[in-house]
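Hi Y.,

Following your request, here is the sequence exactly as I used it, all 296 residues.
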Amino acid sequence: MKWLENVVDEVIALRPEGEIVVSSGVSPSGTYHLGTLREVLTAEVIARELKRRGRDSRHIHVADDLDVFRKVPIGVPEEFSKYLGMPLCDIPSPDGSDQSYADYFLNDLLSAAKAMNLEMEVVRAHEQYRSGFFVPAIEKALDNIDEIRKILEDVSGRELDKQWSPVQILEEGYLKNRQFVSIDKDNKEITFKDKDENDQKISYKTGEVKLSWRIDWPARWALFGVNVEPFGRDHATKGGSYDTGKQIVEKVFESKAPLPIPYHFINRSGETKKMSKSAGDTINAADLLQVLPPEV
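Below is the corresponding structure, written out as tokens. Let me know if you'd prefer a different format.
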């Protein structure tokens, strides 16, 4: 595969020594489908080719299960609309079992990954935040609010609200955008304005504070030392999340952006829109393995 040879050549040239970390990341907001697998398998094959060439490499797959639940997908009871705005990891499973909503959908990928003999290391975002792993990144982001604001406005070409903050607050079980007031690094707490404009304090070392997407992504690159990452073409548009992330990881987190591997979406034959988890027009990973052997 010429494209793979070219990508790996470029990765090795950028990092001639040491371990090479390849990352993929998906939000378990719905069914893991053929389009989702495109990112996972692209990362996996890059890591494998690197190993074939004698390089230390690993594939980290980040399950973004602390993401906000934004839309009830087809196949999930409409009553789940009451959970909109909550982290995916804190919502009950659609099948009524003891697992979470995130687990319910992630397990399909894990089963498919086992059947395909994927060697990826699965990282749960909520576990990382709630263990304090993101504390250094949260502190750097809040120390550099003005710099991040300038990057986002200059690169994306959009003006941010005066009350904008690089973090979201877990308030009464829901992730909210709240005005940041101050940070207490000794006690690992931040002060913010609640909906009634009152000052409230909350810990940022146990998962009650989450970086917003455009800051979370570059923070992850820095914390995990990501060297190469595939992602959908929507993130690769001019002024998009990769462009802003590259500036933020370099100027705020003092690290390097990974080699970008943007990919096009997979559509059903005759359709122009990508497969959508929420619309339900997908071929899930388990069904795919009933049609195609794992090696294919």
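The first strand starts at residue 20 and ends at 26.

Thanks again,
Q.
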